[in-house]
Hints:
This protein is α/β, with parallel strands linked by helices. The chain has one domain (38-321): Rossmann fold (3-Layer(aba) Sandwich), CATH 3.40.50. It has helices at residues 5-11, 23-34, 37-48, 73-84, 107-114, 135-142, 155-167, 205-215, 255-264, 294-297; strands at residues 56-58, 64-66, 91-92, 94-96, 99-101, 105-106, 125-129, 147-151, 174-177, 190-196, 216-228, 236-237, 252-253, 268-277, 298-299, 302-306, 314-321. The strands form five sheets. The protein has a seven-stranded mixed β-sheet with strand order 9-8-7-10-11-17-14, sandwiched between helices. The protein has a four-stranded mixed β-sheet with strand order 1-2-4-5, with helices on one face. A two-stranded parallel sheet has the order 3-6. α3 (37-48) packs parallel to α7 (155-167). The chain is globular. Keywords: Methyltransferase, Transferase, tRNA processing. It catalyses: carboxy-S-adenosyl-L-methionine + 5-hydroxyuridine(34) in tRNA = 5-carboxymethoxyuridine(34) in tRNA + S-adenosyl-L-homocysteine + H(+). GO terms for molecular function: methyltransferase activity; transferase activity, transferring alkyl or aryl (other than methyl) groups. InterPro entries: CmoB (IPR010017), Mo5U34_MeTrfas-like (IPR027555), SAM-dependent_MTases_sf (IPR029063).
Amino acid sequence: MINFGNFYQIIAKNELASWLETLPAQLSAWQKQNIDSRFNHWTNSIDHLPNIKPDVLDLLHSVTAKNHTPLSEGESKRITHLLMSLSPWRKGPFSLYDIALDAEWRSDWKWQRLIPHIRSLEGKTVLDVGCNSGYHLWRMIGAGAKLAVGIDPMPLFLCQFEAIRKLLGNDQRAHFIPVGIEDMPKLNAFDTVFSMGVLYHRRSPLDHLFQLKDQLSANGQLILETLVIDGDEHQALMPGERYAQMRNVYFIPSIPTMVNWLAKCGFKDIKVVDISYTSVDEQRKTDWMTSDSLVDFLDPSDHRKTIEGYPAPMRAVFIANK
């Protein structure tokens, strides 16, 4: 069983306190729904990880924990085995006492693309929507955030986050809450809200934008990263059953369309700060994620197209203020 008591104590004293009116009951219901053999297996793996406090913790340039005295070979193998039992690891990488946890995505590359363009996170309270393993939460702490909260309803991702947290010395500056943004009250409390790789999975992208806005404090900043297509302000791709083998892709807007959507939802100072094609070096199969990855989802004779014939994944980062 994963305990959220520390998080409750932290937010009871800050601008998120009103969340306590609904959150404990939601998490109690979530835990009842998700207690099964897989979840018990994952939490058992966390329980068997050692309690280590790193001598060196670098969250600014990477997510790296080290000790002056290296782990024994047996201890290193045991930790690796326990972390492997939480596979597949989609987002990373992590370097933990010389164990290289090489996830499917080079999430550090995405971070490097956006961090020069956003407001300072120093002393801020931030929200990461659809946080997966929580990799970016640790980078937000490294950038100076006072509190980084990630939300994602997937049990495996919660367990991955808790495993990493334990190996980082039980750091309480970042927290993973297993809810969807549609389950959150309108807190209007976060200085910065991140939504990265989520919008195209939503049936109603405008509803998602309003939900993000409802979490931001006055004049708070939104950082939104999404798939985009080439086109004018009237265009968006609505794929068929699959896009790059993903089933739940609903709308992929052009960049001008995305700007219009943000403006229609009341955001201001909207900027596009990065546009990049996803490469087979950024998303790929590894020992920590052994099933098919991007190279398998592209047209083998033309990597400018997906296997279904749509434009290959291109991503853009937007920043906007409430």
